[in-house]
């Protein structure tokens, strides 16, 4: 049966709300540690089975993307081309429930991180906003 793709009425996320200096303030290490801890949370989450068995490569890709988004070098685009994140997520069935679980894992990882509160808030707002655009299935 043909799968029905849901398009969030809010459309693509608006221009980046993250100041470029964020990368300078945090440094690459803190960002990579955050993303790796997020993947640790995913390991025991209800959406674990959406991801490959070995998530090391997924975590590295995601960390490259976050470095880029937070104002660092465009590591993701250099290695994998244009992000086109919604398109890259289309093969996976992502509804609001999956989004909520995904965001929950990031919330925990942010809470455990030594990132300053101001930057935590910026990252959280970005993720809430951006993840809405990854939803492709009505729950
Ligand atoms: C809404 C909830 C989301 C779910 C359930 C989800 C799930 C997934 C899945 C299943 C994959 C493919 C497996 C993998 O290669 O790891 C993936 C890839 C990826 N996701 Fe998400 N994702 C979500 C939102 C996001 C958001 C908001 C971002 C960006 C901040 C993001 C960044 C990435 C990246 C960079 C990749 C690798 C893409 C590639 O090059 O193949 N995801 N995601």
Describe the fold and architecture.
There is one protein chain. The protein has helices at 22-26, 28-43, 56-69, 75-80, 85-89, 96-112, 117-132. 57% of the residues lie in helices and 0% in strands. Helix 2 crosses helix 3. It is mainly alpha-helical. The chain has one domain (22-132): Globins (Globin-like). It starts with 21 loop residues before the first helix and ends in a 7-residue tail after the last helix. The longest helix is centred in the C-terminal third of the chain and has 17 residues, at 96-112. The structure holds protoporphyrin IX containing FE (HEM). Protoporphyrin IX containing FE binds at residues 47, 50-52, 58, 61-62, 65, 80, 85, 88-89, 92, 94, 98-99, 102, 127, 130-131, 134.
């Amino acid at each position: 049966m043909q799968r029905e793709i849901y398009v969030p009425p809010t459309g693509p996320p608006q221009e980046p709300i993250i100041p470029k200096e964020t990368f300078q303030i945090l440094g690459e290490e803190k960002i990579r540690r955050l993303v790796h801890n997020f993947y640790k949370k995913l390991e025991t989450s209800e959406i674990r089975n959406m991801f490959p068995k070995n998530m090391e490569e997924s975590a590295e890709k995601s960390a490259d993307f976050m470095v880029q988004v937070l104002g660092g070098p465009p590591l993701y685009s250099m290695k994998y081309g244009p992000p086109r994140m919604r398109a890259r997520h289309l093969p996976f069935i992502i509804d609001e429930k999956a989004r909520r679980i995904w965001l929950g894992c990031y919330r925990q990882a942010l809470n455990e991180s030594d990132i300053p509160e101001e930057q935590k808030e910026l990252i959280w707002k970005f993720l809430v906003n951006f993840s809405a655009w990854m939803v492709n299935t009505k729950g």
